[in-house]
Amino acid sequence: MQRRSRWLSGAASMMLAAATLGMFGGTEASAQSKQLTLCWAAWDPANALVELGKDFTKESGIEMKYEFVPWTSYADRFLNELNSRGKLCDLIIGDSQWIGGAAENGHYVKLNDFFAKEKISMDDFVKATVTGYSEWPKGTPNYWALPAMADAVGWTYRKDWFAKPEIQAAFKQKYNRDLAPPKTYAELKEIGEFFQGREIDGKKVYGAYIFTERGSEGITMGVTNALYPFGFKYQNPQKPYDMQGFVNSPDAVAGLEFYKSLYKCCTAPGLTNAYMQEGLDAFKSGQVAMQMNWFAFFPGLYKDPNVGGDKIGFFANPAAKTHATQLGGQGLSVVSYSDHKDDALKYIKWFAQPAVQQKWWQIGGYSAANSVVNAPGFPKSAPFAKDFLESMGMVVDFWAEPTYAELLLSMQKRVHDYVVADKGTAKEALDQLVKDWTKVFKEQGKI
Amino acid sequence: MTASSYTDTVTKRLAINTPQPAAKRIRGLSDRAIAWLFISPCIALLLAINIFPLIWTIRLSFTNFKSNLPNAPVRFVGLDNYRDILSDEDVWHAMQVTAHFVVWSIALQIVIGFGLALLINRQFRSHSFWTTLILLPMMLSPAVVGNFWTFLLQPQIGLFNYAVSLVTGIDPSSFQMIGDVQLSPWAIILVDTWMWSPYVMLICLAGLRSIPDYIYEAAEVDRASPWRQFWSITLPMVLPFLMLAVLFRAIENFKMFDMVNLLTSGGPGSITELASITLKREAFEKWRTGYSSAFAVILFVTVFGAANIYVRVLNKVKQR
Question: Do residues A156 and A283 make contact, with C-beta atoms less than 8 angstroms apart?
Answer without folding.
Answer: yes
